[in-house]
Amino acid sequence: MSKIKTAMILAAGRGVRMRELTDTKPKPLIEICQKPIIRYIVEKMQIHPIKRIVINTCYKGDMIKTALADYNNIVFSDEETALETGGGVKKALPLLQDESFFVSNADPVWLDKSTSVFKQLEAAWNPEKTDILLALIPVQNAKGDVKDGNYFIENNKPRRQRVGEKNIPYLFMGVQIIHSRIFKHVTNTVFSLRDLYDEAERNNRLGYIIFDGKWYHVGTPEALQETETDLIRKFECLPH
Asked: Is residue 238 predicted with pLDDT exceeding 60?
């Protein structure tokens, strides 16, 4: 039985690196195998199962609402101007309601292997010791818009890359569990979740799992083409 019943998908950004592809639609509605990226994420959350999904919107948000209108467990947190990842989650806290919840970016696509990333995160989640639990993936298992990793594992704890460091073995895959208390003393309204990762890291309250599946970061048109080509070659379509 799922312990964490609430999740948020970060879908407020335009995705400017997608260039003309986002002139007429928001990035989460760009399609892979004729299905919007965000629907793959929503479907995985439904299977977990997640009872309540909060999605923040800004750029062409009405299009996202229309595309997901067939789900009755999704609510939307509208932003007049994009609040970045941290600000978006902070604004949505009254909708999220639960103390602990999943958060996912809206642009990755992943293939679970032994078990779903949500089950892996949930099994490792210990709110007594951890404020944020990140899903990391070995760089060699990541495709698409990937240049290098961004986390090391030192003394069984994740450490974010520092300026000038290269050949970083692990990459944050944009999926995590967050405890709402990490926002308690935040006064900013526009900020990145990275600020909270760094705070949790400093306080020895940042945890991790190593995801054992495949992961695609669909951040550019080239990455979109690579992802779709790879998935079609493997499966003739992306599996549910």
From this structure: yes
